[in-house]
Amino acid sequence: MISGAMRGQGEGDALAKHLLKPENDEVIILQPRGLGSGDLIGQVRELVTLSLGGRTDRPVYHVHADPDPAIVDNDAARARFWALFEAEFNLASQPYCGAVHVKHGRRHEHRVYSLVRPSGAVVDTAWDFLRRERCGRIVEYEFGMPSPTPSKHSRAIVAALREQGRGDVADWMEASGTTEAARPVARLSPQERLIETRTGVSLDDLRAAALAAWQASETGEGFLAALKASGLDLRQGRSGPVVVDRTGTAHLATRLIGAAARRADGTRIPAAAVRERLAGLALQNHGDGHGQDRRAHDRGASAAAPGGGSSHGAGAGRDASRAVPDRDAGGTDADGGRHGGRSVEHALDRLVARPAAARIRGRLRLLSPGRNRQLADALDAVRGRRWIAVPGMTDMWGLPIGERPRLG
């Protein structure tokens, strides 16, 4: 039983359209709970509206469950999973909607829950991956699978199952050897997968190039030169040096090299070793250059650049006409702070680069009726008062504290 989940704002119709995507052989809309809209798009909109009063900016919980093909009764397995899942997260009374996807004869189910309770409290989803996997192991055991799905949390799941009185499932997992097996490591994290899709840069190729540059050098200067020969660059990011690919996306050097080594021969290069070699380098801050470091990656221009990489990656001459505004949110370790010499121009560039819908929402907030008027009235009221300093009384910054004199 494989499951996945993601929290979000749920605004717009992208989530509903994802659940209705036509690439499936069949899409079966679920009977919603606590919602009155007749179609899935309306149901998601209604669910988001119901969640507006919650004390969270991510009130929507999108979960999917995909039973293993070895389970004969797919429908019953999904029903059992959702019963365990709702009991685990205390979601039995929360509104939800969703759909069942049928593809190549297999069925998996998507549900979208509201995490905001009528009181405004928010459902606790801490450690949700481990908790969902525990539900999945119970389903696999009860529906006769010969062995559990491998998981890096197997030992923790076994301990939790014994605490919950499910020693039968824990014994089954231990007997399969899953708690002794090497912990599986995903090739990409969800964030890395999204970045790879957006940029078109293979993270495996990037890791291999970074590891080759590391192994071909013995000093920080040599590592930087080897990276530039491969069309890459090295900059200073928020959490340390970052390797910058041809699209301007930053990848933390310690993580990139360590993961590459582990996948190559099973031995990880310690982050401390990477930091020690690069300690003496004077690196430019990632994001400096008024947005010129991140330009729309033209495939033709990248192929024509020396070494097969873009002129950006190799640090060659800048073509200001092709520069795009700085997009720090796209990188894994972009330098998004205000330090490093960043100025008002950078902030303006980022505002211009925001999606049109985001700019419109910001403008409407500023122009909302009464908002600016209330601020102006409050400021005028303060300015219009006469204040007298009280001797010996200061605020936390040492400035005199005054009081308004009483009239009459």
Protein described:
By secondary structure, the chain is an alpha+beta fold. It folds into three domains: 2-146, BirA Bifunctional Protein, domain 2; 190-339, no CATH class; 371-403, no CATH class. Helices cover 40% and strands 14% of the residues. The chain is built from 15 helices and ten strands. β9 and β10 (400-403) form a beta hairpin. α5 runs antiparallel to α6 (167-176). The termini are far apart. 31% of the residues are buried. Residues 290-343 have low confidence and may be disordered.
Topology:
Blueprint lengths: L1 E7 L5 H6 L6 E4 L10 H11 L9 E7 L7 H16 L6 E8 L2 E9 L13 H15 L11 H10 L3 H10 L13 H10 L3 H13 L4 H10 L3 E5 L2 E5 L5 E3 H13 L5 H8 L20 H6 L39 H10 L2 H12 L3 H13 L4 E7 L5 E4 L5
Helix tally? 15
By secondary-structure content and strand pairing, the structural class works out as alpha+beta
Q: Which sheet architecture does the biggest sheet show?
A: 5 strands, antiparallel
Mean pLDDT, all residues: 79
The percent of residues in helical segments reads 25-40%
Distance between the termini: 78 Å
Global geometry: globular
Number of strands: 10
Could you give a short description of this structure?
The protein has 408 residues and is of the alpha+beta class. It contains 15 helices and ten strands.
Keywords:
BirA Bifunctional Protein, domain 2; three-stranded antiparallel beta sheet; 40% helix; alpha+beta; globular; 3 domains
